[in-house]
Design brief:
The protein is of the alpha+beta class. The chain has a single domain, classed as Roll (Nuclear Transport Factor 2, Chain: A). The protein is about 40% helix and about 45% strand. It is built from 4 helices and 6 strands, in the order ααββαββββα. A 6-stranded mixed beta sheet has the order 2-1-6-5-4-3. A hairpin with a 2-residue loop joins strand 3 and strand 4. The longest helix has 23 residues. It is globular, with a radius of gyration of 15 Å. The relative contact order is 0.20.
């Protein structure tokens, strides 16, 4: 059972955990990125859903997105980033909501306008 100290530690480290995660993805250090995730993390995005850190990192290894953070917000165990994501040469302004539990990213919800990505795939 988590103690109050554990909860306070998670709250104070949430932003650091998320920023470490993003930095690792940008550097294609997928082992460090995976260490920031809960094994049973859940990803929900505009274009799909993933269950588990292994599945999520497997996708990230293929996509190799690059993130440019614009703004960071933190509220307890919630961290929100506004960022531009380079998705294979298409920059997409995105909002990512990270929920931290036991010093790991437990869930990630991402919202963005998918039209530029869909239009690019239609041209192929």
């Amino acid at each position: 059972m988590a103690t109050k100290k554990d909860a306070e530690s998670a709250i104070s480290n949430g932003k650091e955990i998320v920023l470490t995660f993003i930095k690792a993805l940008n550097q294609e250090d997928f082992d460090t990125a995976k260490d920031c995730l809960s094994k049973d993390m859940v990803f929900d995005g505009v274009l799909g859903h993933r269950d588990g850190a292994d599945t999520y990192i497997q996708d990230m290894r293929k996509m190799k997105f690059k993130y440019k953070i614009k703004k960071t917000f933190e509220d307890g165990n919630d961290v929100c980033l506004l960022y531009d994501i380079d998705m294979s040469g298409t920059n997409i302004f995105t909002c990512g909501w990270y929920q931290i539990k036991y010093n790991k990213i437990k869930s990630l919800k991402v919202v963005f306008d998918p039209r530029p990505v869909l239009e690019k795939s239609d041209k192929k």
